Amino acid sequence: MPKFSVILPVKNDNRYLPKALDALIHQTDENFEVVIVDGGSTDGSLDTAAVACEKYVGFYLIKGNFETPFEAMNRGLKSAEGDYVLFLSAKDFITDETIEKLCETIDASEKKPDVVVFRNYLFGEGMLPHFDEYEDKLAPLPEAPKYEYLFLRAFALGNKCYRKAFLENRRLYFDTENPYSDYLFIFRAFLFARHVMGCPNAFHERQILPLQDSRRDTPTKEHLLAFCDMFSEIYSIAAETIAQDSQAPVDGDESYLQEVLYRWICNLYEKFYRYFWLMDDETYALFVEKYQQLMQKLQPEKQKKLNAQYAYIGAPHIFASRHDAEFLCMLALSFPQKEQYAPFLESLYHQTFPFFEIAVRESFSDAVPQQYRSMPNLCVLPDDNFFPAARQRSKSHMLLVVKDGTPLHLDALKELSESHAPMFLRQSVFAKIRKSAQVKMSLKEKGLDI
Prior knowledge:
The protein is α/β, with parallel strands linked by helices. It has three domains: 4-213, Alpha-Beta Complex (Spore Coat Polysaccharide Biosynthesis Protein SpsA, Chain A), CATH 3.90.550.10; 221-322; 326-445, Spore Coat Polysaccharide Biosynthesis Protein SpsA, Chain A. The chain is built from 15 helices and 13 strands. The protein has helices at 17-25, 45-55, 69-79, 98-108, 133-138, 164-169, 181-192, 221-246, 255-271, 281-297, 300-309, 341-349, 386-393, 412-418, 426-445; strands at residues 4-10, 32-38, 59-63, 84-87, 93-94, 115-124, 130-131, 160-163, 196-208, 330-333, 357-361, 378-381, 399-402. α7 packs parallel to α8 (221-246) and α14 (412-418) packs across α15 (426-445). It is globular, with a radius of gyration of 24 Å. The chain starts with a strand and ends in a 5-residue tail after the last helix. 36% of the residues are buried.
């Protein structure tokens, strides 16, 4: 009987799958099985998985027609024979010694941990690769307390393993209807576990994909409702558990429940408010409604904390309407080649700081991707007197002339908004921010860190 079962849902992931399988093939410990669950791939993923299963002992393939990866993971969990299960994505990887280090950590523990957390490395286009700081705070802990605040910031799925008997006893499976059910699964596991421990020497590498490649991260009304439903259930589970443990009714002012509300609002900022322009007016109105309801329940000291963390976008105040937005700057784009516009605009609309205006020359307006042409903050201006016209049109006092089409890293405008440089120096500050990020990313790609 294997110590570990690695459950790998796949559906049209052949672009990433070979690397994910290669990481499993080269594990230094062989005490594991790999359960690949294909949900009906048509891009060659099924063939790639089948070849691996024929070639390597302990690799198994389940074929199906699963609508979501959560259905596939539930199916894989039922078939898993290991003492512990690890859920991976075809887009994510574990380092060669991860299984070995997890086995060593579990075997050395006097208790049988129900959940083991290890380190999570994040990388992707437009971002500086880094370790998740909150998962890193859990990874060294020999035992995490039941109501650990970090549990509400550690919702990555692939850097955690679970004792299968614990999952079965607690009947923990993935909700196949909600696209954020992994958050709920992880929280339930944390809160119901008798023993949660860390493993600092095992590593998971998580690839952050562009927004358009993600199944759930587009800021739609449906996703906003599903996200709030998920966090509402987290709040209910926490309230019920606190009431049981204290044998007293809860009123919402309990420290842990306030932290749940705080993290709920923070996630709304990071998953929806930062995509201010990508929400339609109906979705944004719903966002404002949900946000205001939560803020009414949040204690003043938590509101002050929220204000400090998101001061760069004016939290806890938010704009009542997208048309009321104030802007950091006007970016006047003047690239020599049309093909530079699409990737630059893609990176711009995915910034962590969402308030900006854009001016594009009329002769290059056809290079603007269709989804951005109707954005309220984008204007097309005549080629003649383009820069003076952009300055006159701008609601902001700052005009940035952008002649380099290299896409921005995700925090470029946030860093600019936090700069205390005089207005006349902001153009050079912006250039230095971009150059510094490009140098760091180049060094990271070469395996160097600074």
